[in-house]
Amino acid sequence: MQCSRCSLFLIVFILQTAIAIDTLELSPGQKRVFPLEGIKKVAVLHPELIDVSVDSQQNQIILKGLKEGHTELVLIDEKRHRQSIPVSVISLSVQMSREADSTLEDIQGAFVKTYPNGVVSIEGNIYRVADYVKIRSLLFEYPLIRNRINISRHVIDYLAAQIQTELLKNRFEGLSILKKQRGILVTGEVKTKDQIFEVERIAQSIFPNAEVELTHQLRSDNSILIDVKFLEVRKDVGSQIGVNWPSSFSAQGQYSLLSAGSSSSLILSHDNPVTLNALIEKGIAKVLSNPTLLCKNGQSASFLAGGEIPIRLISERTASVDFKSYGIRLEITAKTDRSKNVSLDIFAKISDINGSVSVDGLPGFIEHHVRTSVDLELNDTIALAGLFESRNRKQVRKFPLLGHIPILGELFKSRAFQDNESEFIMTITPRLPQSHVQRRLLDLNKKTIKLLKPSVMD
Fold first, then answer.
1. What residues contact 299, with CB distance under 8 A and at least 6 apart?
2. How far is CA 92 from CA 3, 70, 88, in A?
């Protein structure tokens, strides 16, 4: 009997000292958990104020505040000894205000303010790191408390150093920690969007008001940048670089015939001495277009440059208009592995006007297409040639539309191409996506190419 009473009094003592006051306090919606040892029955005087449940497996009592008011929790042990504990369900703002007052009691310069709408705010100034640590613990326990405290420069310096140390510990290098008048700003670039959230979590775990302004790269193992160039290259300079388009060549690389009859391909390694930029700068090659495609690993990307010609169809009773498409269509599927090897599935289709065939003033069309697969390393280039033959000047004059076809129009207007002195070549180079700084340099490089002297083929 004596042991039973001791057990009951122990439970009462735990309940009453759990929050260091004589009355147990809850706010509406708040839950508190206490041990159940030695308790046979639990009752509440006003069940509309608090909900009491017993978890026999965990051997604990769970109290939940329902609405504001005062009641009693009744505990009865196995010997039917009875003990009552006062319980008050108070508003959350009152509870937060009391907790904040207790926390700020020894902090000079900081105070708690409760507004008429129930908002509880911590205001004033703090000058010690230890004071900030106390306030931070309070804010984590009660996130609804507004933090309007002014932090001294000394504390800001300490928090910035803590954030820097924690970021470096988690391998976030190259980020800038900027100290502002009332806070801290983290800037820089990370690899993924998930890393932005991780940096934000780390910084705000140390300083809840920390701001994070980061940019992110596309994941290199999840995206591939496809650099495509449509070029016009003079045929008579093939011997100078060891390449004869499209029949044979002796340059460093790998050669394979494509599915189309006379088309051929050449793979140029990124360390190959024959570079496209050198050909462009010397006027040997002319860039007709330089689109860039971005595709996810294992998925396809497409490029289309062209248009449609209206063709009038007349029968005995009706007349209609049909549209015939023309131009260049390119579809690429790229896959890469951890060793930076890339597998490309390429489908290229070119529809151009056949000047040798004409019906009622409407030209015929010729379609060329090639489908191939190739394995190469990142930054290597595959060049496709022999996709279609040249056009003479008479054809261009007879059908002025040839000069307006996107990409091909510039080729058809070239005197060298009309005289069969140049060749149309398409190059494809897979790369890793660049950061925003690298993209700016790439854009600057493209602008520089446009400003180069006119090609010898013009």
1. 333
2. 38, 15, 12
8 Å CB contact between 370 and 259: yes
CA angle 267, 271, 272 (to 5 degrees): 55
What is the 3 state secondary structure string of 245-281?
A: CCCEECCCCEEEECCCCCCEEEEECCCCCCCHHHHHH
263, 386 Cβ separation under 8 angstroms:
yes
Q: Is the whole-model pTM more than 0.85?
A: no
Average pLDDT, the chain: 72
Q: Which residues of the chain have pLDDT under 50?
A: 1-21, 218-220, 239-265, 273-274, 391-405, 411-412, 416-417, 436-438, 441, 448-458
Residue 409 phi, psi dihedral angles, 5° rounding: -60, -45
- CA neighbor of 214 nearest in space, from 4, 450, 435: 435
Distance of CA 123 to the CA centre of its chain: 38
Name the residue with tokens 């207790």: 102
Q: What is the pLDDT of residues 181-214, one digit of tens each?
A: 778 999 988 888 888 999 999 998 888 888 898 8
Q: Exposed/middle/buried for 114, CB within 10 Å: 0-12, 13-18, 19+?
A: middle
pLDDT score recorded for residue 366:
75
